[in-house]
């Protein structure tokens, strides 16, 4: 079971690295487009009419949703763990199980409904009104892609926490915190 969980986490981590790479390219594209747009606006008085739509519709959505799973895996999401610090290891694992279950249900719903919305937008050929009629479905499709990957991570993390509880071994860390291990809040 341990090797299966670690293998699944490795596969998810590889997918997340690809997603983060794409998100990084999108972030770089945002910087280049904004800098070029400012240059064109103030030097030639001719800004890009398409820049705002491209950035807000596609690139920002990609930066956020393609990074959400990796951020959870790295413990970079906001967490209120002041009570968890006082828990014994078994209670920490149980609280992580509850967190994974609640997150899995919530993000599975987001993934499902956003997938339906993306499919509907694709089938009805939805576009935004603007200088370029950008199709909306690719932007909407980033939501189920990112949240679906997060659901996979949450499901495997839940399995790892449950296996750790059952065996008494640290198959995966009890709690993934982004703060220093010696940091204590009182």
TrEMBL record:
What Gene Ontology cellular component terms go with this record? plasma membrane
Q: Boundaries of each Tripartite ATP-independent periplasmic transporters DctQ component domain copy? A: 30-162
For molecular function, the Gene Ontology terms on record are: transmembrane transporter activity
Looking at the UniProt entry, the stretches that span the membrane are: 7-35, 55-73, 94-115, 135-156
Q: How does it sit in the membrane?
A: Multi-pass membrane protein
Would I find Transport among this entry's keywords? yes
Which UniProt key words apply to this protein? Cell inner membrane, Cell membrane, Membrane, Transmembrane, Transmembrane helix, Transport
Q: Where in the cell is it found?
A: Cell inner membrane
Q: What is its main location?
A: membrane
> Which InterPro entries is this protein grouped with?
DctQ, TRAP_DctQ
Q: Name one GO biological process term.
A: C4-dicarboxylate transport
Q: Which domain of life is it from?
A: Bacteria
Question: Is the Electron transport keyword given for this protein?
Answer: no
Signal sequence region: none
Cited Pfam families: DctQ
What the record says about family reads: Belongs to the TRAP transporter small permease family.
Q: What does this protein do?
A: Part of the tripartite ATP-independent periplasmic (TRAP) transport system.
Subunit structure of this entry? The complex comprises the extracytoplasmic solute receptor protein and the two transmembrane proteins.
Q: What is this protein called?
A: TRAP transporter small permease protein
Originating species: Azorhizobium oxalatiphilum
